[in-house]
Structures are given as structure tokens and as C-alpha cells.
Amino acid sequence: MQGRILQVGVILGILALWEGLPQSGVINPNFLTPLSDVVATLWQLVVSGQLAQHAAISLQRIAYGLGVSILIGVPLGLGMGWWRTLEQAFDGPLQAGRQISAFALFPVFILFFGIGEVSKVVIVFWASVWPIILNTTAGVKGVDAVLVRAARSMNANGWTLLRKVVIPAAAPSIFTGIRLGGAYAFMVLVAAEMIGANAGLGFLVLNSQEVFRIPQMYAAIVALVIFGLALNRLLLGIERSATSWRQEAGA
């Protein structure tokens, strides 16, 4: 409880400084818009439908890129964690690939896929797939061997063992990877939309700065924070729902 109070106090203090410093002239309000003006501008973006339009485009790109990452990363991670031969075959290329920044590869993606939607989905995929693979692999490897032996003693083998024992036991680690992938996806997409896009939240931030609509720029940044937190909460809610049996078992 005390930690929660301290957390709220720090947030309120930051918001108060945001409002007070430009209002008092300590910071030029042309560079740091007062919080009250940012909130008013954000509301205007909501009412006009402009925010919803840009947000829908960004969220669609994230959904496609993160969705493909899950479809590829989770099965590959399960296989690498369960079959040592598969891990030995893929570990080297995966360790090398995860060292390459998605930003460094963005020119390559544009070269191959153009400056349209596909390149943005691919960069989201590249950024988000690695934590999913690695956390899924680690989750499978961390499954209690006693559970596996007990299941095998009851003639559970192959897909049944994987589905009934391994995947449920590794689920928390898998969902941690998905949440990390979602966070990385959001970050790289915003940067990608600043480089080559005519719509999206990242584009809205950069375009507002270029035409010197500073309150709108800060409003778009606040919207990014809100949507990022909402995405994390959504994934956390899905994780809790999918692993509710663990809480019931521990009760």
C-alpha cells in the first residue's frame, strides 16, 4: 500500500512540474507545452476522430507483425526447448539474428518490400519475434522434470505430453515473451512510422513537430504512452486468464 502511495505521489509530482514549469516561464512554453494545453489538444484529436484514425493504423500494423511473431516464435521456441537437436540446429542463426537491430535492417526491408505496409509489418515482426522464441524455449526447458516423468508414467507421450504438461507449465514464460515482444513492437513501429509513413501515431508525432504544432506533438506522445500501457494490460489480462489454473492450484 505504501509503495502504491509513493508511486502515485511521484506521478502527480511529475505532472505538476509539467504544468508548472512552462506556466511559470522556467521552461519556454513553446518547447514544453503545459499539461493542461496538452490534455485539451488530446481531447480535440479524440473528438475530431484524427487520433482514432492514426491509432487504428498503428494498432493494425502491430497486430499483424506481433501475430506473425507469435505464430512462428511460439512453435519454434517449443520445438527448440523440447528437442535438443532442433535447438542445436537453430541456436547459432537465432543468436546471430537477434543481435541485429530492427532499425539497422529497416533500409533492407524497404529495399525488399518497399515503403508501404509490408515493410512496417516486417520490422515489427523482426523486433518482437526474438523475445518470444527465447522465453518460450527457456520456459520449456524450465518445466519440472518430475511433472514430465509423472505424465510419462501414465503413458502420456508426444503431443499429449506437450499439450497437457509442457505448454501449461511453460505458459507464464511464453506470455512474458509475448508481452516483451509487444513492447518492442510498439517502439520500433513508432520509429518506422516517423521514417516512412503518411499515417500512424509515429507519423502524427513527427508531422506535428515539423509543422510546429507542439501541443499536438505532446498530445500524440501522451496517446502513445496510453496505447502502450493499454496493450501491456491487455496482454497481461490474457496471460492471467490463460494461466488462471495456476492461481487456483496455489490457493
From TrEMBL:
Gene3D superfamilies: MetI-like (1.10.3720.10). GO terms for cellular component: plasma membrane. InterPro entries: MetI-like (IPR000515), MetI-like_sf (IPR035906). It holds the Pfam family BPD_transp_1. Keywords: Cell membrane, Membrane, Transmembrane, Transmembrane helix, Transport. Signal peptide: none annotated. One of its GO terms (biological process) is transmembrane transport. It is a multi-pass membrane protein. Belongs to the binding-protein-dependent transport system permease family. PANTHER family: ABC TRANSPORTER PERMEASE PROTEIN MJ0413-RELATED (PTHR30151:SF0), ALKANE SULFONATE ABC TRANSPORTER-RELATED, MEMBRANE SUBUNIT (PTHR30151). This is ABC transporter permease.
